[in-house]
Structure formats: C-alpha cells, structure tokens
Task: structure prediction
Amino acid sequence: MTTSTRLAGGDDGPGHLRPLLSVAVDALKKGTVDRAGPLPAGGPDFVGSPTSDVLPREGLGVEPALAEMVQAFARGAADPADPACVAHLHTPPLAVAVAADLVAAVLNSSLDSWDQGPSGTRVESEVVRTLADLIGYDPAAASGVITSGGTESNLTGLLLAREHGLLRTFGVPPTVTGIPPQAQGRLRILCAETTHFSVARSAGVLGLGEDSVVRVPVDEHHRMAPQALRALLEEMRGRDELPIALIATAGTTDLGVIDPLPELADIAAEYDLWFHVDAAYGGGALFSERLAPLLAGIERADSVALDLHKLGWQPVAAGAFLVRRAETFEPMERRVAYLNPADDEDAGFRSLLGRSLRTTRRPDALKIAVTFRALGRDELGTLVDRCHDLAHHAADAVRAEPRFELYRDPVLTTVLFRYLPESGDVDRVNAELRRTLLREGTAVVGRTELDGSVWLKLTLLNPNTTRGEIETLLADVLAAGAKETS
Ligand SMILES: Cc1ncc(COP(=O)(O)O)c(C=O)c1O
Result:
C-alpha cells in the first residue's frame, strides 16, 4: 500500500491520520497568517487557486498536495472566526464540534440504514429528542431529523403541509398521486413579506408553484400582522382558494424579528392550516434564559426548522427539522429492500431512512451531541447572550455616530445601519463602501435592502469578539464611507 492509498479508519487509520492532521493544521495556520484578516485582499481576481491542474496525470503525493491546497484555501477564505467577518449567518465553529466532525468523516457513517451507522442512528435519535424538548414539544410524541439546514427543513415542512392539506380536503396523498386537478391553482401558503426565500422556492419544487405563496403584510415592528392574515384568509374563502400552510419566522434573516407565534398558532388552528415555524436563526435563543421567552408559542407549531450552524456554533451542516406529532412524518416513510427490510425493522434494527429526503446522510448529530455535552445548556445560553450584548453595543455605537443611521434596535444579534454621506447617492455610497472593505480585505460586512434602500448589516455570531473590535470595525466602515465621498 502506498501512503496515498492509506485509509483513515480501521485499526491503523488513526495512526495514519495523526501526521496528516499535523500537516493540515500547519498549512491552515500558514494560510491564515498569509491572509492576515477576515478575507483575502484584492477582490475576486486575486483569490487564486495554487494550481489550474486539479487532476494531474500523476499525483503530487499526499503531504505536498495537502499542504499546498490547504494553505491556499485558508489564505483565500472568508474566516467567520475573524471579528470583522460579520456579513451572514455564517458562524465560527467551535473547536470541539470540528474535532467531533472529523470522526464522523473518518467512520463515514450514514444514516439511511441501521447497518451503516448503528451509533449514528442512536445519537441522532437522542439529539432529536433533546431538540424536541428544547422547543417545548413532548419528546415522546415528537419526531425529527437532522438536515443540511434551514432550506431542507423548510422544504420538508412544506411537503408535510401539502400532504396534510390535500389528504384533509381531497383524501389523496400527493406524494403518491400528485396534486389532483381540482386542487390545481387553488392551494395557498401564507407567510410574511420577510420570510426566507427558501419557502417560495420549496413551493415551486413541490409543484405548488411560487405563485401559491401569499405574502402577509408586517406591522411597524416587521412582524407578521395577524389582522392582515385573517383578512387574507377570509378573502381566500370568498375566492374558493385553499390555504394549507402558515409559515412563521422566529428570527428573520435581516432583522432577527420574531413573528407573533401565539396569535399565529391560534389562527392556524382556527383555519386548520399546517403551522411551520422557521426558527433557523432564532432557534438558538432557546438556549438563553433571557431570550427564550421571545419564542413562546413555538411549541404549538406542527413543524419547526432549527439551524445549529447559525446560533449553535457548528460547522456546516447542522440543521434540524422537528414535528410535534411523530405520525405526521409518515408520508416520508419508504420501504427499500436493500436498506430497511420490514423484518429487520421488526427485529429492532430501525433505520432513519424515512425521516429524510436524502438517502446517504452524514451523522451531523455527533458534533451537536458532543458540543451539547461539553458546554451544557447554560454555556450555550451564555454564548447567545454575549452575541446579543455585542449587537446592542454595536447599535449604541452606531447611534452615537452622526454619520451613521441605525435602522432599528437589534432583536437578536444583527444590526442594520447605513453610512450617511455628505453628498452623493446614499445607496450607491453604501454599496461601494462595502465592496471597498471586501476588496481591501478589511471587513466582510453584510448588505441588504429594506424599504427600497441599501442597508449594511452586522451579523454578530462570534461570542469572543470584544467591544473594542466592534468599534474598530465601525471605524473601518466610517473610513471607507469617507473615502467614497472624498
Ligand atoms: C430564517 C432563515 N431560514 C432559512 C435559512 C436557510 O438556511 P440554510 O442556509 O441553513 O439552508 C436561513 C439562512 O440564512 C434563514 O435566515
């Protein structure tokens, strides 16, 4: 066996892995030092690959290839562990989670059949129970699955909503028979104007059409307005339309706003709508004693999306999809002769195949379980609170600077603001100053649009960032703005 073909697992695997990890970690360190900031300076043209020949006829050998590519990758990365890398819900992962994830890769367990992941199957089931409990579901009645993220969780939620709605009204299961002609063009999904784009995209994927998604206006706090929702539902009745799902958000991507969950749960129950809560961002608030009350009512959802690769400090991917009643998950079940034969299942060799739209599936629950056990709920809550405090500190600093305008006080850990130039178009200046910071390699600041204008966004997910580092970041934004207008 050549060194290139050594395996990571088996009796000898860890011995082979250790020196390679050393090479990778050293190269990671060198690349990080080369970059010297949150992202490489120079803009897109300067983020080179070390080679244009990714698949040479003859390989370079393990250590040289690993060292070269890892160093270049780290040099060219946007590093969420840098305090100035704050554009997205792009979390800096905890070292403990990354170490656990390495083991998932080595053993390459897969959760589509019990025999590819006995311990993975067990750990995922325990993590799902824990998350169900965190939401406030009865863990004995609930079910769920670890997903690739909020997008997959929202898709799964809408799939179950479609199933529930069509079975109830027409007695047909659309996953088997498709959408019946009498339902075509009549099905409706209600969500706020601020709902994540993956909801509409899922409606398209599920054959409901993106046009089936009806946007409910929001109130002055950017929360879905229950009265407006009710009015829309009544109008739909009059037009013989069939609303099937209500999607609420607990933590909108930009403002971190939480829709009024108790009122929406009441309306969903009254109109027999599937109630899905997208808590991909805000779900992390459940760890915090201070912030968890904001999510009251989430336990009444039929399904919930959580993302531990946001406020949970996990390496991607670490999403979760939970349902309040395990039986509502049944439309996902599949019997596949080579994966989960009935007699194996009856004998207790239960697979998780029927929980996911994927077949081969990583045991992403391992890193989550290790992190939970290592930190416990209290320390996770402290990390959430620290990010929340940082957001308030940043908002205060923005308010104190006359050249900045704060959009509104933070709810979770994002801060929306813009630079007010002395002259020139405010949208253009803010868009340009953000690109300047990217090009110079100084900061990765977010950008979004609200009320038709460009706003900058700090998404604060690094609990180790100091107040001083936030002030430096804001000073860099200010300097970039001044440069744009000079
Ligand atoms: C509210 C919300 N839902 C869903 C998603 C999609 O999550 P993912 O990127 O993990 O698929 C995001 C991503 O930022 C989000 O903010």
Remarks:
- The mean pLDDT is 96.
